MIND kinetochore complex component Nnf1
Amino acid sequence: MAAPNSHPAPMTTTPNTSAPAPAPGLRASRLHQVFDQALARTLRANSYANFAGCFPTPAKYVPASLESVWRQLNAKLEESAKAEFDEILAEREAVAHLNELDRLVSEAKERRERDRLAGENGEARGPGNPPHTLGAEELYKAHLTPYLEEAQATLNQKLEETHAQNTALAQTVQAQRQEIERLLASLESVVGDIEGAATAAAEFSKEHHIRQDAIQMDREVKARPNV
């Protein structure tokens, strides 16, 4: 009986047909730059002086060995950080997305410039842009405009009501003023009548006094003898 073949069949490897990573654009390059700067600051913070301060005995007796360990540790930290960063970029397809964002921003700027030139030349602009192509300020204004228009309409209505109330109040005040003027005219007439009556009463009182004096004189003359 033949012994069974204990060697497994050779595995066929599938060639890597994935597309090469895209070259980083403006924003992707800036992201790499920010990461490199942050990593460099971290490595500078882990200086040999700080590292040796944590191991005073080896730093005193075997400083060369301790410095070698420090260099290997920093190199491993740098290598691990870069590898993890590249892995995250590849997993999230960050470079491709950032390049797409660069393209969209560039197209939006070109479209805005064309619209500006068209407006300056008096040309009609095309239909409204899709929301995802608008900038932050345009989206903010588009979202806020309905509320501002509603508030403006409410304020206009209140202003009209206040104007109507002021008009009615002005008419009431004018009517009251006319009524006061009529009352004053009537009061002046009454005052004139009172003054006339007072004058007449004074004249009557004076005439009555003269008459009384004449009667008294006549009585005195008659009362004298041989008159």
User: Anything to note?
Assistant: The chain has two domains: 26-124, 134-227. The chain has six helices and no strands.
